[in-house]
Amino acid sequence: MPASIVVFLVAVPLSLGVAMASGAPLASGLIAAVVGGVVAGALGGSAVQVSGPAAGLSLVVADLVQTYGWRATCMITLLAGAVQLLLGVFRAARAALAVSPAVVHGMLAGVGVVIALSQLHVVLGGSPQRSALANIIELPGQLVDPHGHKIAVGMLTIGVLALWLRLPKQVKVVPAPLAALLVAAVTAWAFGWDVTRIDLSGAFTEWTFPVLPQGDWHMVVAAVLLVALLAGVESLLCSVAVDSMHTGPRADLDQELTGQGVANMVSGALGGLPLAGVIVRSTTNARAGARSRASTILHGVWVLVFAIGFGWSIQLIPVEALAALLVFIGVQMVNLGHIRKVHGHGEVPVYIVTMAAVILLGLAEGVLFGLALAALMALRRLTGVTVRTRQQPDGRYHATISGSLTFLGVPRLTQELRAIPAGAPVDLDLNIDFMDNAAFEAIHAWRLDHERLGGTVDIDELHDEWYAMAASGVRMYPAKTLSSGPDRSWLPWAHRRSRASQRVEPPHGTPGQADCRLTEGAREFHRRTAPLVRPIFTELARKQQPTHLFITCADSRIMPSLITASGPGDLFTVRNIGNLVPRRGTEPHDDSMGAAIEYATQVLGVHTITVCGHSGCGAMAGLLSGGVKAGSLPAMRRWLRHGNHSLARFIETAGDRLDADALDLLCKVNVQQQLDNLRTYRKVDDQVRAGRLKLVGLYFDIGSARVHMLPPVSSSLSVKA
C-alpha cells in the first residue's frame, strides 16, 4: 500500500508530461498509466516493474500524431500491442536483450535532449518547433524575447526539482515532480501570475474508437513494428535492471512481453499512449518496499480514482511548469553513469552516434545508425588481432598474439613478426580463439624463415591448439568442441615434451644445452600463469588462512591441489614418507609433525585434518616386508617404526592373508591408524570432542585416478579389501 501511493504520486505528473511532450491529449497519459498499472501489472512477468507512458517513445508518438492524427496513432498502438503479444507467445523476449545497451542508452539520451530543447521553448513562453535543429536555431530568439510570469513559473519548477535532490530523506518522501508542480501551481495562483492553464474539458467523456491510418501501408507497418520493438526492448531491459533491486521472484521475460502487448492493445483501444516499463517508476516502487505486483496494480487504481474524482485539480497546473518538468527529465536522461559504463567496454562511439542521429535525424534513424555501428564494432572485435613483442633481459624475444586470426589481420601480423631480428630466440604465445588458413600460413612461413636464418621459435598455445592441428593436418574445429584446454600445467614434463613433438616443431639446439626442467618451468610460470594469479597472491601475501591441514605421502605422483580441486591458500600441507603421524611421545622422537599439528590447530585454526594415503605406497611395502626392503636405508627403518601400529591393525584385519591386495589394504588401514594417532595429541582430541575439528581419511587410487573416503576411525577399526 505505501509503495503504491508513492508510485502513484510519481506517475501522475510524469504521465501528464510525457503526453504533453508527445503532442497527445493530456488525458491519454493518465489512461496509459491506469492501463499500465492494472493490466500490465496483473499480466506481466515482473513482480515490481511499473509500466506507463515512457519518455523514450514520445518522439515516435509525436511524429505519428503529426503524420496520421491522434485516433490513427491509437490504432497503431493497438496493433503494436498485438505484435508484442505474438512475440511473447512465441517466446522471443530473450532476443531483445541482444540489442547493445549503448544503443538503448544513446537513444534515450537523444530523446532527452530533443524533449529538453522542445519544452524549453514552452518554458520561455514560445512554441516548440518540429525538429531539434529548428529548436536550436529558434532558441536565441526566444531568449531575447522573455515572457515574464511564464519564465518565472518554469524557473521556479526547475529550482524546486534541483533543490529536492539535496534535501533529507524524510522530506523526499514526497516525490520531487509532485512537489515542484504543487509549488509552481500554488505560487502562480497566490500571486495571480499570467500563465497558461491545462485544459482537460471533456477529456474523459469524449471517446471515439481508433481508426486505421491512411497512407502508405509500408510506412504504417514500419510504424507499428517500431513502436512494438522500442516499447518491448525498453520494457525488457527495465525488467532485467529492476530484478537486481529486489529479492523476490525473477522476471519471466516472455510473460512480461505478453502482458505489455495486452496492455498496449487496451491502451490503444481506450485512447491512451503506448506504454512500456519505466525505470523511474519501477525504481521508486522497488525502493519504496514493493514485494509483489499488488503495488503496481494499486497504483493504477489510484491514478484512475484521481482522474475521475480529482481531475479538475490538474487544470490548476501551469503548462509552463509541466514543460519545465520535461526539461529537467530530458536533461536527466543524458545519464553520465551510462556513459561511464559504455566507456568501460569501448562503446562510447555507438552511444554518441546513436544520440546524435536521434537528435538530428529522428528516433528510427538514430536507432538504425546505432545498431549498424554496434554491429561493425562487434565484427571488428571478432576479427581483431593484437600482436605484442618485447625483448627480455636474457636476449630472448617474447611475442604474444591475441584475438581471432583471420586473413584481415595477416598484414599487421606479418609486419610485427618480421620486425624481430633474424637469429633471435623467440617464445611465441598464441592466445587465440580462431585461426583461418591464411593466418596459419603467415605464422608458419615466418617461423620456417626465422629458423632457417638461425633463430629458434617455441610456440605455446594458451587457448586451443589451432596451430598444432593445422601443422599436423588435423581438421580445425570451433574452440568449444576441442577437448584440450589452455592450461596444461598439471601434465608431467614428459607428457608435455611428447605433445611438443606432436606439434611438428623443428628441432633446435643441441642435446647438452637443455636447461633444468625446473628453470624452464619457472620461466613458463612467469610467462603464462603469474599474470593470471598475481591478484590472488597479492591478497594472500598479507596472511595465510587455510581451512585444512592436509597430511599426505611424499610420493611424487600425489598432487594435493589437483586431487582436491583446491587453490593457493586452501591447504596447509605436510608430506612425509608413508603419510605417517608419529604418536605423541613415541620413539624415535620427531617434532616436525607435532610442530605442524600445533601450528595448524592452534595458530591457523584449521577446521579439518585430512590424512591421504595412496595405492602402491613404497613405505607400506617396506613395512609389510618387515623392514627387509629398507635394509640399506637406516633412517628409513627408524622412520617406519612409526608405522608398527598400522601393521598391527592390518594383521588384526587381514589375518594371515597376503594376497595381491594386501599392500593396498595396508595403505588404507594405515590412513585410519594415522587418524587414530592424531587423537593422541591432547589439543586435537579436545577440539574433535568439542566439534570444532574434523578428522578425514582419503585414499587415492593412482591407477584409476579416483579418491575414496575412508570410514571414520570411531565407527570402524577395519577396512574392507
Structure characterization notes:
The protein is α/β, with parallel strands linked by helices and 721 residues long. It is 55% helix and 10% strand. The chain contains 29 helices and eleven strands. It has helices at residues 2-22, 26-43, 58-68, 70-89, 93-96, 101-123, 132-143, 149-164, 176-191, 217-243, 253-270, 279-287, 294-309, 319-332, 336-344, 348-360, 363-382, 410-418, 437-452, 466-471, 493-502, 517-540, 560-563, 592-604, 618-624, 634-640, 644-654, 662-678, 682-689, and strands spanning 51-53, 275-277, 385-391, 397-405, 425-435, 456-461, 548-553, 571-576, 608-614, 694-701, 706-710. A five-stranded mixed sheet has the order 8-7-9-10-11. A four-stranded mixed sheet has the order 3-4-5-6. Helix 19 links the parallel strand 5 and strand 6 (456-461). The longest helix has 27 residues, at 217-243. It is elongated, with a radius of gyration of 37 Å. Residues 474-487, 497-514 and 715-721 have low confidence and may be disordered. Its EC number is 4.2.1.1. Belongs to the beta-class carbonic anhydrase family. It catalyses: hydrogencarbonate + H(+) = CO2 + H2O. It is a multi-pass membrane protein. It comes from Nonomuraea ferruginea.
